Amino acid sequence: xxxxxxxxxxxxxxxxxxxxxxxxxxxxxxxxxxxxxxxxxxxxxxxxxxxxxxxxxxxxxxxxxxxxxxxxxxxxxxxxxxxxxxxxxxxxxxxxxxxxxxxxxxxxxxxxxxxxxxxxxxxxxxxxxxxxxxxxxxxxxxxxxxxxxxxxxxxxxxxxxxxxxxxxxxxxxxxxxxxxxxxxxxxxxxxxxxxxxxxxxxxxxxxxxxxxxxxxxxxxxxxxxxxxxxxxxxxxxxxxxxxxxxxxxxxxxxxxxxxxxxxxxxxxxxxxxxxxxxxxxxxxxxxxxxxxxxxxxxxxxxxxxxxxxxxxxxxxxxxxxxxxxxxxxxxxxxxxxxxxxxxxxxxxxxxxxxxxxxxxxxxxxxxxxxxxxxxxxxxxxxxxxxxxxxxxxxxxxxxxxxxxxxxxxxxxxxxxxxxxxxxxxxxxxxxxxxxxxxxxxxxxxxxxxxxxxxxxxxxxxxxxxxxxxxxxxxxxxxxxxxxxxxxxxxxxxxxxxxxxxxxxxxxxxxxxxxxxxxxxxxxxxxxxxxxxxxxxxxxxxxxxxxxxxxxxxxxxxxxxxxxxxxxxxxxxxxxxxxxxxxxxxxxxxxxxxxxxxxxxxxxxxxxxxxxxxxxxxxxxxxxxxxxxxxxxxxxxxxxxxxxxxxxxxxxxxxxxxxxx
Amino acid sequence: xxxxxxxxxxxxxxxxxxxxxxxxxxxxxxxxxxxxxxxxxxxxxxxxxxxxxxxxxxxxxxxxxxxxxxxxxxxxxxxxxxxxxxxxxxxxxxxxxxxxxxxxxxxxxxxxxxxxxxxxxxxxxxxxxxxxxxxxxxxxxxxxxxxxxxxxxxxxxxxxxxxxxxxxxxxxxxxxxxxxxxxxxxxxxxxxxxxxxxxxxxxxxxxxxxxxxxxxxxxxxxxxxxxxxxxxxxxxxxxxxxxxxxxxxxxxxxxxxxxxxxxxxxxxxxxxxxxxxxxxxxxxxxxxxxxxxxxxxxxxxxxxxxxxxxxxxxxxxxxxxxxxxxxxxxxxxxxxxxxxxxxxxxxxxxxxxxxxxxxxxxxxxxxx
Lengths: 660, 368
Known about the structure:
The structure holds two protein chains of two kinds.
Chain A: H1 2-30, H2 33-62, H3 69-74, H4 81-86, H5 92-113, H6 119-143, H7 167-196, H8 201-232, H9 243-268, H10 272-295, H11 308-332, E1 341-342, H12 347-379, H13 387-404, H14 407-410, H15 418-424, H16 426-442, H17 449-472, H18 479-488, H19 491-515, E2 518-524, E3 529-532, E4 535-546, E5 551-561, E6 564-569, E7 572-576, E8 581-585, E9 587-591, E10 594-603, E11 609-616, H20 621-638, E12 657-658
Antiparallel strand pairs in A: 1-12, 2-11, 3-4, 4-5, 5-6, 5-7, 7-8, 9-10, 10-11
Helix pairs in contact in A: 1-2, 1-6, 2-5, 2-6, 5-6, 5-7, 6-7, 6-11, 7-8, 7-10, 8-9, 8-20, 9-10, 9-12, 10-11, 12-13, 16-17, 17-19, 19-20
Chain B: H1 2-24, H2 34-51, H3 56-79, H4 87-112, H5 122-128, H6 134-148, H7 153-166, H8 169-183, H9 187-200, H10 207-219, H11 224-236, H12 240-253, H13 261-272, H14 281-288, H15 292-312, H16 317-329, H17 333-347, H18 351-364
């Protein structure tokens, strides 16, 4: 009964979505309040049904009902409860159900909290949202139905891919999906604006919280995924430029650009048409990401779905939505009113620069990800575009962007003073030079670029502090007044500061990890010593242990430094008999922001075991940075005030240029 | 019946969600507007000015800009046609909800759903086994006991052979491992573990299984099961001479009344020359005394009988696999391919069986 009710709830959600995608549009066309309000109640009811459907699937997994094919294929009665639950979205069908659940959640939130929206805009937004939902309900029901049954249920399930039996997986996909799918709201708003044929600063005000929420979750989701890859895959790497990772990075880059251009739009009523285009592109890239991961066109860790009908169906959805929205854009955008004016050197100008670099970076990733696929389709050659390509293209784009970051907040709206901003950043520049000089002296003969990159990161972080000092008039007025001013600063300003500082922090982590990473790779026997970066690791012994649904070999290492015993690390290798596969559980020892990392390889007949031991200096900063960014986003989100960009009044006549 | 009742309730709720706003007419709020946002922005500037965040000159410039936007928005608001109610459209929408929605839902559900299947949660199934499957029930009881006290080595060593016999090799492997961990290591247990591993791999002595047999022999060089399977491993690796050597050594040392004698002798014959599909011990013993031609005829007869049986009842995946293996061993590849095609047709409607078949074929190293 649970299975069939869940299935029926999903079907009803589709039926409601179909109504929600048409009736409100007709209502908006004939200006009928009741018809427009249908969008709201159907969106809420749709959320209720999808949630019921999702809960039903979770219950089926928890009770190990192997008469449901999805449960049989991805669960096992001996799996710990937490992985029975997370296993729901550890497989294709379940994760698509999570996808639509989150889509319905966002639709329901707009319906519930969209009281401040004009009626027709809300009707349009929810209708567009329902188009997307209908397409994906159809996709799930027809090609990847999680509620299909087995008439003679087997007694035991086939277990979840062991790599995915990890707490990281419990959090990573929902976060990522909240990000991906969250951008559907800004997409729906953009399409609604195009249908209505009008757009203004108020629009940006309404979209802001949704974009921000999506961005926060996407940031955390990517960071989480990267950390999961770092400790679970056992390679010690945290970013592989894997197409699936790129698929999440592209919407993030576009979404970051959108966040900044929407800011210009809300505050200054400029860059309107561009913002609409970015909204469309960001969600299109999210859809593309879904296609890449879910269709199985890529063969990587994440692509556990391989079924051509699915691929073709998603491709169809992709073409209809991206093609349709871009055609609508091409048709309606010229009719939209142009926005405000600003000088090239101004806050707006700086944000345009940010957008240019971010979108170019996004395009680079796009090419690097899709070119091999296109080539394979056309000529059948299989090539892989790896880290060298991205390091050569992505890094040069990010360097000028990072240099520009501290300047942006210091420039005035409408017309800015670059020289003045540069003077105010003197302190940051000096700090960065000192950092470079110190590092050069310390690591003489080492990498040349690393100190420069760290200098850049220091510049960004101190630049943020300079901006805050400027706003609170620190050192110019008594400290107590400065502190009071700091408290009075809008939380959005603090949000910007945290987000930008997070960027610098992450950069320091990346540079330190890649440059001063030391490793020990070799086979060692119990009793042997390994020396890595001043730490002595002694292998005490190997033991076998039986877990709930796996067997593991645990190695015990005693870590000491200068003869003083620090800790015991126990990396292990797990064997999952049901699937006949194994995973490595790396052991991590955190010292400040640095980590020691041990992962086990294969054992040999003479009792030795292959180990990889890394010392990764300041590696944790890589993830603290995004967390800081997300925290900045939360601060900005909590700032419910309106954003007004007070323009700097012209002192003399200057030539201004149109925004678009 | 309850299921249909629940479905009906859900459908009514869905229809209600569409009809409710339609019945409310103009009473619902008319929503926000741009003008409100701009008015709030103006208030914001005053607050910022008071807090000293922006200067007076900037505040004035911003106010002028926003006022302009406010005027434009108000202008637009006036030009817009006021909301109106369109009864005809509302009725149409209501009819769509009342008729279309249940139709779409029923259409999709009846083609995709299986309303006749109830739930089969694992807990309910274990209890259901009570009446007609005493063995399964017993196993379930022991299993639930071991779930609570997983360090009971005796429990594991009792459970493991039963699981192995039931064909639940994966669980048997786990049980043997636990038995070894908690009840102590022994040659027999290692050999049994290896056998279960072999069973899990569909009869192929995997390297993992081989390791276990190796450990068994290390503890007791004479362990018959481990030795037999080590020979089998050698045979499967294509080292027939090694296999024969192992088995001959076994027979040489074995007491004359050892129960496994016929099995090893048959195996020895297999690598020695004539090849046979899996035969029962009795048949093996009989085949031993026959001439080469007679034995060939006997084997052929058995294979043909198997083929006929499978033609009548094609549900037996194991049978099909045995047949394919037999043809392969007899060197009749064409017949093997034919049998495979028939097998696929016979079990084709059943995804689960087809998977078993394919897995089995993979183990045979034959993907015709």
